[in-house]
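Hey everyone, long-time lurker, first post.

I ran two proteins through the pipeline my lab uses and got sequence/structure pairs for each. Pasting them in order. The first:
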Amino acid sequence: MAPDKTVLNSSVLVLNRSFLPIHVTSVRRAFALVYMEIARVVNPQYETFDFEQWRRQRVLPGGEGVGTPSGQIPIPRVILLPGFDRVPKRHIRYSRTNVFTRDKFTCQYCGEQPHRSQLNLDHVIPRTLGGRTSWENVVCSCVDCNRRKGGRTPQQARLRLNRVPSKPRWTPMMNHISSSVRYKEWRPFLSIVDTPNREQRAD
């Protein structure tokens, strides 16, 4: 039976060699990295496993696994890059992608999440009225809302911001990691860093 594509595309937390979270990847990519000996699987007890060691682990009751000719392999939810020492940065570069990531690729006026090709950056106070290009004055906007607003303020266009834009405390990637929590296996490692306060769910 072929592996479930949904499972293979689900999220895996990536740690640097200091066990700090730096990225989120897919199960498919995580298996490849572990198999190539670039990464090791990590369990909530901070034990690490190479591919052969992980392959011999049991799939726990209620847990997820991938079927192979030799049996089920547990799905890794956290991997470690032993040779990688990059740490989460506190300096946050202003960019189009980082604004989209901060706003979770969601229009800050209508709340919709269209395809990325249908998203724009919008100056809350238009540049023609003296608005600056900054974290505090630029938001993610869908094409429709952007056209409706035009060169006006939200009040003039009868639009309302879902939230006041501000500079993220951490890099958008760290916010993404925190907001993407879906697995209890991530919790011991997310508690290491000062991510924004929000409830962490587990499936």
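...and the second, right after it:
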Amino acid sequence: MDASFARRCLELDSGEHPFIVVTLVESEGSVPQDVGSKMIVTESGRDFGTVGGGRIEARAIQWALQMFREDSSNNLVQWNLNRDLGMTCGGRVRLFFEKVDSSSWSVVIFGAGHVAQALSRLLEPLPCRVTCFDTRREWIEKLPDSMCAKCVDDMASEVKTLDDHSYIVCMTQGHRSDVPILKRIAESPARYPFVGVIGSKSKAGAIRRELIEAGIDLQKFHFHCPVGLPIGSNHPAEIAVSIAAQLLQVRDDAASR
């Protein structure tokens, strides 16, 4: 990959701007560009590079913009230049469209204790944005520098700042600090794709009773408690693995739908 092209990809990714890389992966006959040519398309249109100009490029940009609107992921298309694009040359091209959107998956962790420390390090290399809230500065300062870690006075009040697409995990010091957060989540007009709470089945029962007493309709508000897949031991690192696996599972299920 050309250094300037890679640099532009890095700039867009670092700025959390979604983009699509279009690559000419195969060609046949008379085509205006070489195999391996690349182009970057943002939601504003062509940003960098070229896959041939003219009708090929115009159709590729149109296809990429449609991917943004339909929230697609990867796509491989093949066009006959004469039949599909109305070009006089009789060639054929195959283009690969790869969407890059590291900001699209937002994971929010309430609590920065042992399991949160392990979970944040598992999520760190993944294409997601991780935010963690806690009232304890000494625990917040232990989190990786790459994530957004905030020491706050009231974690529940931070619910109103969350993106509607956030995947939320509550792992505070106990159900007394979890319940106010869950109550705010349940009362929010947003419908978050995932809400999980660390704890045992008995803790889950206590949380549900308190939410019902607070007037929360649990038919409409669903959360996972205990959070995580039923794998591993009670070691913080293994609990973190089970939670990360469940987050990936729910994310991929939603994407397939």
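Reply from user beta_strand_b:
Welcome! Quick read of the second one: The helical segments are 3-14, 54-70, 114-123, 137-140, 175-187, 201-213, 236-256. The chain has a mean pLDDT of 87.
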